[in-house]
């Protein structure tokens, strides 16, 4: 068996080598696929903070992914149409800078996570799962009925937003931007997991009653983790919208929430690189098997069943011989 650190380094090396090879071989579509995997991994990293460290099985994390996407889409829509978007005295007309859009997306998603967390964390277990699912469906149907921004048809963005010093329309440059965002999120996850806050959150996941007896508030710790998780997932949603230059209500769908959970389970719940491995496997299966059959999810289901039955630590657990945390 090999150590988890070696697995992590190998995964990071793969994320760098694959797009460089694709650039050398002039396989531009492979760079786009890798970018898609990186963005989905970023969204799953956000969920992994809530699920892997905090033990919160959220079936509504697509809310934050969708809010990040729509924050980007709405700002870009008003920028390309030169229609001012007013928030009291504040006008965001002409906003095409990714930094501003990322900030808006993360703040919007964090605020939504705070409100949803305040209500959802009053419950536990299957009730928590169902209430997060209910919030996801509420936002999904709201987006469908929001005719000002495309409704069920979604909203097209004709020009990708800019970043200083980069041409974001060049696939490899946009990939590096997304990879840096993923690496920062991974560092945040690692620091959280090893910090006193993360250790307390891990204790809350295992035995909340004991944590409460020493004078700590388990719900408060979970809420903070849930807000951080939502903000990171919202950033991924904004990047995903920029990648596709399109947003639609499907970004709020419960299927997407389920896929994010599947990514984490495949890679390894609570593992640093678990979401990255899961996203890479998911995108690879979607590309290769999706070209052969519309029912490629069957094979994804087979892989998931095998991992749940025989590899509780996910792919990383199989490689290292160590199980991950039990949620």
TrEMBL record:
GO molecular function per UniProt: branched-chain amino acid transmembrane transporter activity
Protein name, as recorded: ABC transporter permease
Membrane topology: Multi-pass membrane protein
A Gene Ontology term for the protein's cellular component: plasma membrane
InterPro entries per the UniProt record, alphabetical: ABC_transp_permease, LivM-like
CDD domains given in the database record: TM_PBP1_LivM_like
KW Transmembrane helix (keyword) present: yes
Record keywords: Cell membrane, Membrane, Transmembrane, Transmembrane helix
One Pfam match: BPD_transp_2
Transmembrane segments: 7-25, 37-55, 62-80, 100-119, 126-149, 169-188, 223-241, 261-285, 297-319
Annotated organism of origin: Actibacterium mucosum KCTC 23349
Record localization: Cell membrane
């Amino acid at each position: 068996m090999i150590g988890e650190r070696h697995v992590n380094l190998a995964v990071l090396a793969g994320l760098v080598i694959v797009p460089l090879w694709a650039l050398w071989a002039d396989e531009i579509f492979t760079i786009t696929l890798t970018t898609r995997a990186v963005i989905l991994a970023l969204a799953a990293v956000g969920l992994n903070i809530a699920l892997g460290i905090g033990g919160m099985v959220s079936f509504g994390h697509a809310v934050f992914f969708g809010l990040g996407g729509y924050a980007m889409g709405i700002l870009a829509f008003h920028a390309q149409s030169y229609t001012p978007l007013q928030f009291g005295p504040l006008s965001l007309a002409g906003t095409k800078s990714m930094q501003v859009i990322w900030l808006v997306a993360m703040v919007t998603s964090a605020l939504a996570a705070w409100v949803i967390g305040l209500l959802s964390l009053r419950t536990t277990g299957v009730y928590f799962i169902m209430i997060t699912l209910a919030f996801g469906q509420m936002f999904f149907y709201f987006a469908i009925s929001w005719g000002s921004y495309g409704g069920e048809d979604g909203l097209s963005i004709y020009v990708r937003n800019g970043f200083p010093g980069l041409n974001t329309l060049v696939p490899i440059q946009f990939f590096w931007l997304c990879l840096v965002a993923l690496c920062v999120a991974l560092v945040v996850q690692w620091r959280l997991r090893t910090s006193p806050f993360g250790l307390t959150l891990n204790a809350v996941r295992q035995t909340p009653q004991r944590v409460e007896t020493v004078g700590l508030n388990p719900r408060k710790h979970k809420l903070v983790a849930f807000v951080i998780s939502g903000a990171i997932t919202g950033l991924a949603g904004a990047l995903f919208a920029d990648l596709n230059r399109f947003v639609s209500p499907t970004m709020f769908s419960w299927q997407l929430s389920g896929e994010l959970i599947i990514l984490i389970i495949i890679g390894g719940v609570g593992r640093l690189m678990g979401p990255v491995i899961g996203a890479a496997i998911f995108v690879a299966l979607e590309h290769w098997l999706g070209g052969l059959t519309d029912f490629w999810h069957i094979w994804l289901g087979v892989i998931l069943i095998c991992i749940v039955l025989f590899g509780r630590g996910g792919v990383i657990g199989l490689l290292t011989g160590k199980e991950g945390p039990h949620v």
